[in-house]
Design goal:
seven-stranded mixed sheet; alpha/beta; 243 residues
């Protein structure tokens, strides 16, 4: 699983510490580079996540691994009265806070530094929880999912947007070439952290997706688990609930 893949292979730091270091280093270029490497399609995927959450008319929403807050900002279009963006990278959150201030949404959206595997919330706190392109960075996937299950309200919605691997020709072969060779080169052109985008492609290659991740969600207690591949299977949206 992806917890065996780390950004800095020779570092004595834990995966969690390395992830924090990596995202702090690339935070200044992260938004622009994301648009480049996904050809802007990631915006469309996030809007699909928004639609799934909005259907539940949530009052409280938590966006885990919120980064610079793109998805948390979208959640302001729902009925939510309180939205929290959580991340372990202060550098990413600093940019997210500025974006929130610029849109005059500081009264509805709060950004906090916290560990997704030990979150500072009471049981059954949120109507909806989202994670976009962050779940594969968990150091312990089962522990992180158990925490999410704990703080999600019964009948609440949990939505994941994560990279996946196309399985059909020629998308499988093309995606492999793109993530293995082109993506790290583009990342190095825009980022001072040479290891970051090599890690992002390597972690995506080994992380469970589709029915494999569906089964992991079920194992951790989630019900009504569904997955929908996006754009030839390069990403997948997962939708689950709690008893």
């Amino acid at each position: 699983m992806s917890n065996s893949v780390t950004p800095y292979k020779s570092s004595p730091l834990s995966k969690k510490e390395q992830i924090t270091k990596m995202f702090d280093a690339i935070s200044g270029n992260y938004d622009g580079l994301n648009r480049v490497i996904s050809f802007g399609i990631d915006v469309k995927w996030r809007k699909k996540v928004l639609k799934l959450v909005a259907q539940k008319q949530p009052k409280t929403v938590l966006d885990i691994a919120t980064g610079t807050g793109d998805l948390a900002l979208l959640m302001a279009s729902t009925s939510a009265e309180k939205i929290i963006g959580l991340d372990i990278s202060p550098g990413m959150l600093a940019i997210g806070k500025k974006k929130i201030e610029d849109k005059n949404l500081s009264d509805r959206i709060e950004m906090i530094v916290a560990d997704s595997e030990a979150m500072p919330f009471e049981d059954n706190s949120f109507d909806a929880i989202t994670v976009a392109f962050g779940i594969r960075n968990f150091e312990n996937l089962d522990k992180g999912l158990a925490e999410i299950y704990r703080i999600l309200k019964p009948h609440g919605v949990f939505v994941i947007l994560e990279t996946s691997n196309p399985t059909k020709f020629p998308f499988k072969q093309g995606y492999f070439l793109y993530t293995k060779y082109l993506l790290p080169i583009v990342g190095r052109l825009f980022s001072r952290d040479k290891a970051a985008y090599s890690y992002l492609s390597a972690s995506a290659a080994v992380f469970p997706f589709g029915e494999a991740l569906n089964n992991i969600l079920r194992k951790n207690g989630f019900i009504d688990v569904q997955s929908e591949p996006q754009t030839f299977g390069v990403a997948t949206i997962y939708n689950a609930s709690k008893k």
